[in-house]
Amino acid sequence: GAGVSQSPSNKVTEKGKDVELRCDPISGHTALYWYRQSLGQGLEFLIYFQGNSAPDKSGLPSDRFSAERTGGSVSTLTIQRTQQEDSAVYLCASSLEGLGAGYNEQFFGPGTRLTVL
Amino acid sequence: KQEVTQIPAALSVPEGENLVLNCSFTDSAIYNLQWFRQDPGKGLTSLLLIQSSQREQTSGRLNASLDKSSGRSTLYIAASQPGDSATYLCAVNGGFKTIFGAGTRLFVKA
């Protein structure tokens, strides 16, 4: 595809359930990023993948959050035992090169709006 | 710890006016800085990326500057149009993280 795609676009779940969010980066992009944007808040950096590895996971809000990337392409962000405060828009981005490179323009997907009831 | 601040938080201008949005950051050890726009309920659109070795970048009516030593970047919008109304975000790229400012909400009146 031409851009970063995310699925689902909307997800409503009940408190305590697990959810999986998916991101398909632009083909050939080596780096992939996850962010969270809560209502009225700025973008919060969650995690960054260079290839299949994440050099820094300290941005994940709690141990209920995990992310993986396989084959250097698709990534999934999993939230276990969801809480109401997890409600937010989860955004994914990809770039041709990773952080640490001078030119690593990030391109964003449309996001997944997660609502935890 | 990198902190990114954007001023003003909101701005309303008449159509045709030139304007400047400001972004400041606390840690000058950055690789690059990127400006985005976000329309309500939408994702982010990349506007300009400035590498740490560059002083400015231009695209159409947009010009972004970077002064790494003072921890500042500006986004200049010339001859503003109602279609420029959006939230403008700056993002600073360090080694393993990208830190965003809270944004400037711009409204251009016709």
The ordered H/E elements of chain A are: EEEEEEEEEE
Helix content of chain A: under 10%
DSSP strand (E) fraction of chain B? over 45%
Instruction: Tell me roughly what share of residues is in helical segments of chain B.
Output: under 10%
Mean pLDDT of chain A: 92
The major sheet of chain B is characterized as: 6 strands, mixed
Largest interface: A-B, 25 and 26 residues
What does this structure look like?
The complex is a heterodimer of chains A (117) and B (110). By secondary structure, chain A is mainly beta. Chain A is 0% helix and 45% strand. Chain A is built from no helices and ten strands. Chain A is globular. Chain B has no helices and eleven strands. The model of chain B has no long low-confidence stretch (mean pLDDT 94). The interface between A and B is medium-sized, with 25 and 26 residues.
Summarize the structure.
The complex is a heterodimer of chains A (117) and B (110). Chain A is mostly beta strands.
